[in-house]
Amino acid sequence: MSTHGGMPSPPPLAGIQQNQIRAAARAYRAAMTEGDSDGPARRRAITAYIAAGGNTETAFTDVARIIARVASDHGEWFWRPVMERLEREEYAMRKLGWWPGPRAWDERRRVAEAAVARVFGNKAACGPDMAGQPGSPPQPE
């Protein structure tokens, strides 16, 4: 398996036409830019892929491969509009005094991971930084 920046490379796009790749990637990017989450954005990308002549039977996996490949190979183009939207939203929230800041999100994540660890007894679920913290599962010796 080849690597891309130290990570495994996304699957190749053999058998998918360029117009189908462009249609799916642009639809996903536009949906994410508008504020959609992954599910609705992926559905839009699948619709665009099929409209461009993509195979309806393999649309789900083909679009997943397209998104992975384009996001990996053209990440700056792919994610820039989403990052700009998030920055605008953060700015607006800060102006209104609604921004909780990253510490609030980190605390929520820590609490959620500890809860998962208590339920499933999985050290990996809470990460090494939680080991020995109150509410974390006992660690094997």
User: In angstroms, what is the radius of gyration?
Assistant: 20 Å
Specify the helix fraction band.
55-70%
- Biggest sheet details: 2 strands, antiparallel
Query: How many domains is the backbone divided into?
Result: 2
Q: What are the segments in which pLDDT stays under 50 over at least 5 consecutive residues?
A: none
The separation of the N and C termini measures 35 Å
Structural description of this entry:
- The structure is a single chain.
- The chain has 141 residues and is mostly helical.
- The chain has two domains: 3-96; 101-130.
- The protein is 65% helix and 3% strand.
- It contains six helices and two strands.
- It has helices spanning 18-33, 38-51, 59-73, 75-96, 101-120, 123-126, and strands spanning 3-4, 7-8.
- A two-stranded antiparallel sheet has the order 1-2.
- Helix 1 (18-33) packs antiparallel against helix 2, helix 1 packs across helix 3 and helix 1 runs parallel beside helix 4.
- The longest helix has 22 residues, at 75-96.
- The chain is globular.
- The chain starts with a strand and ends in a 15-residue tail after the last helix.
